Amino acid sequence: MTINQIQDEIIEEFCDIEDWMDRYAYIIDLGNALPAIDEQYKTPSHIIEGCQSRVWLNAEMNDGKVVYTADSDAIIVKGIISLLIKVLSGQSPDDIINADLYFVEKIGLAEHLSPTRSNGLVAMVKQIKMYALAFKAKGSI
Q: Which of 24, 25, 34, 127 has the fewest CB atoms nearer than 10 Å to its CB?
C-alpha cells in the first residue's frame, strides 16, 4: 500500500468516531497494539529530542524499505507514534522523505493536541524523515 492509501484508510477509520474522547481512546488502543521495541533501542541515542515524553525510535533497512519500531512512556504519544509508523514504516526512503502527512490535519489531531504534544509530533515526523534521509544517503554512496 502507498503512504496516501494508508492515510486515507486512517482518515476513514476516524470518520466513524465523532467524539474526541472516543478518538483519544482509539489512539491509545493503537499505541497498546504497537509491537514492542527491542530493549536494546531504549537508550538515550534513540530518544526523540523535542518530545516532552520519552519516545524511542529505531529504524532499519529491509529490502529497500525503512522499517520503524518505537515506544513511549506516555499512552497518547505511543498512539501517535503508532499512527506515524503505520503510515511510514515499510516504505522507501524517497517516499518517506517526500510524504505529505495530511492525515494529521484531516482527522483533527493537530487541533486537539496541546502545544507541547504538537511540538512532539513535529519532532517525531522530523526524526522519522531524518532516518529515511540517512538511509538514502548511505544507498547513494
A: 25
- Which residue is catalytic, options 27, 37, 51, 99? 51
| DSSP string of the chain, one letter each residue | --HHHHHHHHHHHHHT--SHHHHHHHHHHHHHHSPPPPGGG-SGGGBPTT-SS-EEEEEEEETTEEEEEEEESSHHHHHHHHHHHHHHTTB-HHHHHT---THHHHTTTGGGS-HHHHHHHHHHHHHHHHHHHHHHHHHT-
Structural domain including 73 reads 3-139
pLDDT 10s digits, 85-129: 999 999 999 999 999 999 999 999 988 888 888 899 999 999 999
In the residue annotation, 51 being an active-site residue is answered as yes
CATH of the domain at 113: 3.90.1010.10
The structure's pTM equals: 0.93
What total number of domains does the chain contain?
1
Cα 102 vs. chain centroid, distance in angstroms? 13
| C-alpha cell, 79 | 498512539
